[in-house]
Amino acid sequence: MDELTFAVTTVFAALLSQASQDTYTKARDLLRRLLRRGDQPDTAAELERLDQDRASVMERSAPERDEAARRAAAGWALGLEGLVRADRAAFEELRALVERDGPTTVINQHNHGSGTFINGSVAGGLTINHGAAHGRDT
C-alpha cells in the first residue's frame, strides 16, 4: 500500500467511524464534488453507498467500530485514489475536516536507546526526544 492509499484509507476510516455528523456532512459534500470531477456515472449511488457504510459502522459497538471502518475505508480508498491524485487540494481539505473533528492523529515517533522494544514495552535504556527533531534547527 503506497503512502497516498494509506492516507486515503486513514482519512476515510476516521470519517466513517469518528467524525461528528457536521463534519461527515461537509466531507460528504466534498466527496460529491470529487466524484463529479471524476465523471463518475452514478454519483448518487456512490453517496448512498457511503451513507450505508457510515450507518453500518456507527451501529457497531466501540471495539468493533474501528475494524469495520478500516474495512469499509479500504474499499473506498482503492476507488478514490485516482480522483485524489487528480485533485490533491480536495483531499487535503477532506483531511483537514476530519483532523479538525476528532482524535485521529498520525505521529511518527523515533526513539532510540540500548533497550529492547517489544510491543511498545521497553527493557533497558531509552531516550525520548520531545519538541524539535534531533539534529534540526526549528
Q: What is shown here, in short?
A:
The chain is mainly alpha-helical and 138 residues long. It contains 5 helices and 2 strands, in the order H-H-H-H-H-E-E. It has a two-stranded antiparallel sheet with strand order 1-2.
Compile the SSE list and pairings.
Elements: H1 3-17, H2 21-37, H3 43-58, H4 62-86, H5 88-101, E1 116-118, E2 121-123
Antiparallel strand pairs: 1-2
Describe this structure in words.
By secondary structure, the protein is mostly helical. 63% of the residues lie in helices and 4% in strands. It contains five helices and two strands, in the order H-H-H-H-H-E-E. It has helices spanning 3-17, 21-37, 43-58, 62-86, 88-101; strands at 116-118, 121-123. It is globular and about 35 Å long. The protein starts with a helix and ends in a 15-residue tail after the last strand.
**Which oligomeric form is depicted?**
single chain
Count of extended strands: 2
- Report Rg: 18 Å
Bin the helical content: 55-70%
| Biggest beta sheet attributes | 2 strands, antiparallel
Helix/strand order: HHHHHEE
Q: Report the total helices.
A: 5
Give the mean pLDDT: 75
Key terms:
two-stranded antiparallel sheet, 5 helices, disordered C terminus, mainly alpha, single chain, globular, 138 residues, 2 strands, 63% helix
